[in-house]
């Protein structure tokens, strides 16, 4: 009897538990035979007194996307980059220094570390693009290909301003990746992230482009070291983790559209969004590093701000479009072209500009000497286009050759032109200022940053090219007339 009651209870429980499902299934209707597959059914949900058509989710578009070819085309082009880093520190011996002078009796300590990231073949001749932070301070760099072959790599050049670096391995016929066009990327477009997260080699993840021209204040600027960050990242929701840095962001055709650089995370691991340097900017940087050893960067010479509602109200702007010019650099490219404080930059060439990041990206693709059409709306409301000739930080339009770089390295200094204000205060129309100075020929003479070289062998110095050319003339002695910022003159003679 007891078993019989239990059995009945069980049956009732099963039926009772199934009843909602039965009722739900009973309410479903087959689609009409003449359905045109619009995605809408004939049923309505009742929301209060309103009837709302229910749209069925249609995944046919998603199912049609196939990432196999894109993965196949890119996975062999992405490499695993490992580094060894040596940190050297010096511990002073105060007791020894007291008796024998500074530095006496101190000990040098070395700490050894390692790092890992990814890189992408951009040439069959062994050139690899990666992030600067992947190989920064590395004493050794090793590259592991998808077939597990290993190569030692050397640094071709680095650019902390974009966090891009180029390294090279010896050999030929490496599987370089085709380059896409990051300007053509659209929000919502599918992309793949290819890299080596957590030392898991040849890993592919998928996501969509979530945003473009994103500035996340990742990179640190340093004017003394000529580091002026350019952040205009492609934001995606493709899973990227530590080890992915320097790897490829590719489109559905397997073309490189970005270099994965960072993640937005409070834990250090992926939590929703990742960021990549757009390939159009990468391409310019890597070409400069390969051809010149440095980035030939042109500067517009403006201080800019995104247009907020506060700025719009304060400056009586008609809308929020464009980028506000908060100031112009004296004798800079913009000032020479007639741009003024209060102008709003609307377009660079034919491309509309609505953020500081987008403006930085467009100018970052160009070199000194390049001419660019800048469309502005003046403070008076008139729209006009200005032709701007870009200049480097020294105010020059010429590109710096590898030979000149080597010469400047030997001198141990970088230079900049005097502003018109400085010339006026010193009552001169010539002179070149020492911007930075490190170990080299000029420092050995006791010259310091800020010193003005006004004459060489009694000839006024008017350009940086003239200065470096004469300083590197080893066939004759050199007499420098130098000036302090207060105008005090002195003379230094030497033979290079």
Key phrases:
496 residues; single chain; globular; 13 helices; alpha+beta; disordered N terminus; Thrombin, subunit H; Pdz3 Domain
Task: Describe the protein.
By secondary structure, the chain is an alpha+beta fold. It folds into four domains: 2-58, no CATH class; 67-295, Thrombin, subunit H (Beta Barrel); 302-389, Roll (Pdz3 Domain); 402-495, Roll (Pdz3 Domain), CATH 2.30.42.10. The chain has 13 helices and 27 strands. Strand 14 (256-264) and strand 15 form a beta hairpin. The chain is globular. It starts with a helix and ends with a strand. Mean pLDDT is 83; it is low at 1-61.
Fold blueprint:
Layout (H helix, E strand, L loop, with lengths): L1 H26 L12 E8 L2 E6 L4 H5 L3 H8 L2 E14 L2 H7 L6 E15 L5 E5 H4 L2 E7 L5 E3 L1 E6 L4 E5 L21 E6 L7 E12 L18 E4 L11 E4 L4 E9 L8 E6 H14 L9 E5 L2 H7 L7 E6 L4 H5 L6 E5 L2 E2 L3 H9 L6 E7 L5 E7 L12 H10 L1 E5 L2 H7 L5 E6 L3 H4 L7 E5 L2 E2 L3 H8 L5 E7 L5 E7 L1
Antiparallel strand pairs: 1-2, 3-4, 3-6, 4-5, 5-9, 6-7, 8-9, 10-11, 10-13, 11-12, 12-15, 13-14, 14-15, 16-17, 17-18, 18-19, 18-20, 20-21, 22-23, 23-24, 24-25, 24-26, 26-27
User: Could you please say which CATH topology of the largest domain applies here?
Assistant: Thrombin, subunit H
* Helix fraction by DSSP (H/I, runs of at least 4): 10-25%
The level-1 CATH class of the largest domain? Mainly Beta
Task: Label the CATH architecture of the largest domain.
Answer: Beta Barrel
Structural class: alpha+beta
Q: How many helical elements?
A: 13
The gyration radius over C-alpha positions equals 31 Å
Strand portion: 35-45%
**Total strand count, please?**
27
């Amino acid at each position: 009897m007891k078993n019989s009651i239990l059995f009945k209870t069980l049956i009732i429980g099963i039926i009772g538990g199934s009843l909602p499902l039965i009722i739900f299934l009973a309410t479903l209707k087959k689609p009409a035979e003449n359905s045109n597959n619009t995605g809408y059914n004939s049923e309505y949900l009742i929301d209060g007194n309103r009837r709302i058509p229910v749209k069925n989710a249609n995944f046919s578009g998603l199912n049609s996307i196939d990432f196999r070819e894109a993965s196949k085309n890119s996975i062999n082009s992405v490499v695993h980059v490992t580094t060894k880093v040596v940190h050297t520190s010096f511990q002073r011996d105060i007791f020894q220094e007291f008796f024998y002078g500074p530095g006496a009796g101190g000990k040098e300590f070395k700490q050894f570390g390692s790092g890992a990231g990814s890189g992408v073949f951009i040439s069959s001749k062994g050139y690899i693009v990666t992030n600067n932070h992947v190989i920064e301070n590395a004493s050794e760099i090793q590259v592991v290909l998808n077939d597990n072959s290993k190569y030692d790599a050397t640094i071709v050049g680095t650019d902390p301003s974009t966090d891009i670096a180029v390294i090279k391995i010896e050999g030929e016929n490496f599987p370089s990746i085709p380059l896409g066009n990051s300007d053509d990327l659209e929000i919502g477009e599918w992309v793949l992230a290819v890299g080596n997260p957590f030392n898991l080699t040849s890993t592919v993840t998928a996501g969509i482009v979530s945003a473009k021209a994103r500035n996340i204040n990742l990179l640190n600027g340093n004017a003394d070291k000529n580091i002026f960050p350019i952040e205009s990242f492609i934001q995606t929701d493709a899973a990227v983790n530590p080890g992915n840095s320097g790897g490829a962001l590719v489109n559905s055709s397997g073309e490189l559209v970005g270099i994965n650089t960072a993640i937005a995370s409070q834990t250090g691991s992926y939590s929703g969004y990742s960021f990549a340097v757009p390939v159009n900017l990468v391409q310019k940087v890597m070409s400069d590093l390969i051809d010149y050893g440095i980035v030939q960067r042109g500067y517009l010479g403006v201080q800019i701000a995104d247009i907020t509602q506060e700025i719009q109200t304060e400056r009586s702007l008609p809308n929020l479009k464009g980028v506000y010019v908060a100031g112009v650099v004296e004798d800079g490219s913009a000032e020479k072209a007639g741009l003024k404080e209060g102008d709003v930059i609307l377009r660079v060439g034919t491309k509309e500009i609505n953020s500081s990041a987008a403006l930085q990206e467009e100018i970052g693709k160009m070199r000194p000497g390049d001419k660019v059409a800048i469309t502005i709306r003046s403070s008076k409301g008139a729209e006009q286009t200005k032709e701007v000739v870009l200049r480097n930080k020294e105010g020059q339009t010429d590109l710096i050759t590898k030979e000149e770089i080597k010469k400047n390295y030997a001198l141990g200094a970088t230079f900049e032109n005097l502003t018109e204000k400085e010339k006026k205060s010193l009552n001169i129309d010539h002179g070149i200022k020492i911007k930075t100075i490190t170990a080299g020929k000029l420092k050995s003479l006791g010259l310091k940053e800020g010193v003005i070289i006004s004459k060489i062998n009694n000839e006024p110095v008017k350009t940086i090219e003239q200065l470096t050319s004469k300083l590197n003339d080893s066939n004759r002695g050199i007499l420098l007339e130098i000036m302090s910022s207060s105008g005090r003159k002195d003379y230094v003679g030497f033979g290079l």
